[in-house]
């Protein structure tokens, strides 16, 4: 354990194993009974972590419920960087959601959508890369990698065709700050029954609608929550173009997911194949997913 974690004011230091992040995460209880989250990462990620720290400062200053950033400590001897934050008290939203009613699911989704809009309203740097060129290059790479891998899923031709035939959907898309991994697994239902958003370590800049690409995970758990997130974000019914563009981003994720899953074993591969099958079922009747509970 590094020097920062051996602070004499820390009564308890417990490593958190949950999640896919390369960061080492620790729950800390201080001798004066404060709860902290400490993220430890490589010093080479300094610029990214400064950006994350500043983003959290901006959001918490606006009353946004997330981890309050406290200190960023670089340790050159360890080639390590520590980010110290407050702890978000509460329960994982994806665990508590099954105990709630569909109406409560929808209302939490509304809140999640409103909070996502708040993130997207944070001022973005004036200079950023051309989104369409960047994303199409990324998607083409995913397609090539998929076609070279040893696994495949039914309906892959439909997905590849959609990606190749609807590239105009990315024309002149605006850009904003992204949370980077916005789904139920990174949401906490607080002790006051409010929603908190955690884990901004994958934050970046891009098309605001691309941020909904993780909604497939939430829709599988609760269509009412996923519907609420969309309605809350748009303060009502979304524009028709939204679902066409969302389908594009879902397709890109799906075609890239199988090559990604292979090194993690057969269970991950099987999970990604089920995700692809779910997607094809959702959009079987067109670009409006069947889990979206339209009020029209």
Automatic annotation (TrEMBL):
SUPFAM superfamilies named among the record's database cross-references: Protein kinase-like (PK-like)
Stretches assigned to the Aminoglycoside phosphotransferase domain: 12-238
Domain of life (superkingdom): Bacteria
Pfam families per record: APH (PF01636)
GO molecular function annotations of the record: kinase activity
Keywords from the UniProt entry: Kinase, Transferase
Official protein name in the record: Predicted kinase, aminoglycoside phosphotransferase (APT) family
């Amino acid at each position: 354990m590094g020097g920062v974690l051996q602070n004499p004011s820390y009564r308890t230091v417990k490593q958190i194993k949950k999640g896919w992040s390369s960061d080492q995460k620790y729950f800390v209880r201080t001798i004066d009974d404060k709860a902290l989250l400490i993220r430890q990462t490589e010093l080479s990620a300094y610029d990214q972590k400064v950006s994350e720290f500043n983003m959290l400062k901006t959001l918490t200053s606006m009353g946004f419920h997330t981890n309050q950033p406290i200190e960023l400590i670089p340790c050159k001897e360890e080639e390590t960087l520590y980010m110290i934050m407050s702890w978000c008290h509460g329960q994982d939203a994806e665990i508590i959601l099954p105990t709630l009613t569909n109406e409560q699911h929808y209302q939490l989704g509304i809140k999640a959508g409103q909070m996502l809009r708040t993130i997207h309203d944070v001022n973005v740097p004036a200079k950023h890369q051309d989104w369409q060129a960047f994303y199409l290059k990324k998607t083409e790479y995913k397609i090539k990698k998929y076609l070279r891998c040893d696994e495949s899923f039914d309906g892959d031709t439909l997905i590849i065709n959609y990606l190749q035939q609807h590239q105009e959907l990315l024309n002149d898309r605006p850009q904003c700050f992204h949370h980077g991994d916005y789904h139920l697994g990174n949401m906490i239902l607080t002790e006051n029954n409010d929603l908190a958003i955690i884990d901004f370590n994958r934050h970046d800049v891009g098309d605001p609608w691309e941020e909904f690409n993780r909604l497939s995970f939430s829709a599988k758990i609760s269509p009412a929550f996923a519907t609420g997130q969309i309605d809350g974000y748009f303060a009502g019914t979304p524009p028709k173009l939204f679902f066409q563009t969302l389908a594009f981003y879902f397709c890109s994720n799906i075609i890239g997911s199988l090559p990604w899953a292979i090194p993690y074993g057969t269970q991950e591969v099987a999970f990604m194949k089920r995700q692809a099958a779910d997607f094809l079922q959702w959009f079987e009747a067109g670009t409006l997913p069947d889990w979206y509970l339209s009020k029209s």
